[in-house]
Amino acid sequence: MSYLVPCAWAFLACAAFCIVYNIRGWMLVVASLGGSVGWLVYLLLAPLGNDIVQFFLATVVTAVNSEILARVFKKPATEFQIVALLPMVPGGGIFYTMEYCVIGNNAMFLQTGLHTLGIAGALAMGILLVSSLFRLGSAPAAGKNRTK
């Protein structure tokens, strides 16, 4: 039950973001569900104790979901991926990094900044891993579809 409310908020945030990107109808629901599933995976992995690993694994799940949905609905994977990553974007970390920079707290600036970069890197690596594996899996066989 404690996971239901955060996942519902993640769904609503993703749905609002879909409206901004002009994603309507059934695609709005499907893309928003990807964001709430990603957030659920992040919450379920909390016992790991390492939030960068949590973000990486949640991103892998959302990227796999996005690639599958892209093939099912014949849409670009980024349409689903951008929306699904919204709950995991380290916006608070970016804000506090800049706040510590402005007030001159260099130790906290570096600590928060490096942690935020780690989260952003985990998101990027999760997407890179899954999209590369899907590209390798769907590569055309050698010799087929060649133009002369």
Layout: helices, strands, pairs:
Blueprint: H1 4-20, H2 26-44, H3 51-73, H4 77-85, H5 91-103, H6 106-137
Helix pairs in contact: 1-2, 2-3, 2-4, 3-4, 3-6, 5-6
Features of the shown structure:
148 residues; single chain; mainly alpha; globular; 6 helices
Structural commentary:
It contains six helices and no strands. It is an all-alpha fold and 148 residues long. It has one domain. The radius of gyration is 18 Å and the shape is globular.
Characterize the overall form.
Answer: globular
Tell me the number of strands.
0
Strand-pairing-aware structural class = mainly alpha
Low-confidence residue ranges: none
- Beta-sheet strand percentage? under 5%
| Biggest β-sheet description | none
Cα-based radius of gyration, to the nearest Å: 18 Å
The tally of helices reads: 6
Please give the share of residues in helix: over 70%
- How many domains, as an integer? 1
